[in-house]
Write a structure and sequence with these properties.
The chain is an alpha/beta fold. The protein folds into 2 domains: 7-163, Rossmann fold (3-Layer(aba) Sandwich); 171-279, OB fold (Dihydrolipoamide Acetyltransferase, E2P), CATH 2.40.50.1020. The protein is built from 8 helices and 17 strands. The protein has helices spanning 21-24, 38-54, 67-77, 95-105, 121-126, 139-165, 208-214, 254-279, and strands spanning 7-12, 15-20, 27-34, 57-64, 83-87, 110-115, 131-134, 166-170, 175-179, 183-189, 192-197, 200-204, 220-224, 227-230, 236-237, 241-243, 249-251. α4 (95-105) links the parallel β5 and β6. The chain is elongated, with a radius of gyration of 25 Å. The two termini are 18 Å apart.
């Protein structure tokens, strides 16, 4: 059972804020504006603010006055934007060129062209641009474009999350796609790995280290040189065993005991604190 607080405390620019839970769960969208016209950037930010007020999204905006500056920032820091609005007709480096350079390394980012000219429509398709908006941009047109862009962002994120939940296992004799949530623990047995699932066992010819390399390191941990456990299935950590429910226990070595014990106790403490705060 999950327990939710009616209010959540967050920090913003060093200030402590108490928000309603619905506000705290507001979806965040990181959006970059790249345009050499300052008045247009100002208008866009006002329209984005209006969009925030009408929807459940919080839009974190980054401003760039040139494509060269934008590409330099990406090269230095990596791409952290979900959506990019690019002015096509910028000096020195046009938006079409910027989009093509971004696409070389970042296939999934959602790009939207903004321009005063309709002649760039074909180039928009060449760079796999989702939206094409002509200046001056009215709010309703922008709203329509944002809705499409955000749907695409969500689709990409959902697809990535689904992919992360599954691992592909290939051995000499067979291959399979396993859901990580359903893996309770993995056991080394001679030259095989036994995946103990919620609904039975799956046996593959591979080493335990090969199996571990395919798993989410924030979810799976060694309890012993011959065992890997799914942390979400741990019910108790004893001095010599990890209890995984339904009477299942796997050995734990002194090397891994302290780490797993601390993580498990921290989890219990967090749940108790959340329950206490929810009830008050």
């Amino acid at each position: 059972m999950l327990f939710y607080r009616r209010q959540v405390t967050v920090w913003d620019m060093g200030k402590q804020l108490v928000l309603d839970r619905e506000d705290a769960l507001m979806k965040k969208i990181r959006l970059a504006l790249c345009d050499d016209e300052h008045f247009f950037l100002k208008d866009m930010k006002q329209n984005l603010k209006k969009y925030e007020e009408e929807t459940s999204y919080e839009i974190i905006v980054g401003e760039y006055c040139s494509g060269i500056q934008f590409l330099e920032d990406i090269k230095e820091k990596g791409l952290s934007w979900d959506i990019i609005f690019l002015d096509v007709d910028m000096p020195l480096k046009k938006g079409t060129e910027v989009a093509k350079e971004i696409r070389k390394n970042y296939e999934d980012v959602v790009i939207c062209y903004i321009t005063s000219f309709g002649e760039y429509a074909l180039q928009a398709f060449e760079a796999e641009v989702l939206e094409y908006v002509v200046k001056p941009v009215d709010y309703q047109s922008l709203r329509h474009s944002l809705n499409r862009c955000i749907k695409q962002v969500q689709y990409i994120k959902d697809a990535k999350n689904i992919k992360k939940r599954y691992i592909e296992i290939q051995s000499k004799c067979k291959a399979a796609l396993l859901c990580m949530d359903e893996i309770v623990y993995i056991e080394k047995r001679r030259n095989q790995c036994v995946f103990h699932m919620e609904d039975g066992e799956q046996v593959y010819y591979m080493t335990l280290s090969q199996a571990y390399d395919k798993l989410d390191p924030d979810m799976f941990f060694y309890s012993h040189q011959g065992y890997i456990v799914n942390f979400s299935h741990i019910k108790e950590v004893k001095t010599n065993a990890v209890c995984l429910g339904n009477g299942i226990e796997v050995p734990i070595s002194r090397t891994h005991y302290k780490k797993l014990r601390k993580m498990h106790m921290d989890k219990i403490h967090k749940i108790r604190t959340e329950r206490k705060n929810w009830r008050t």
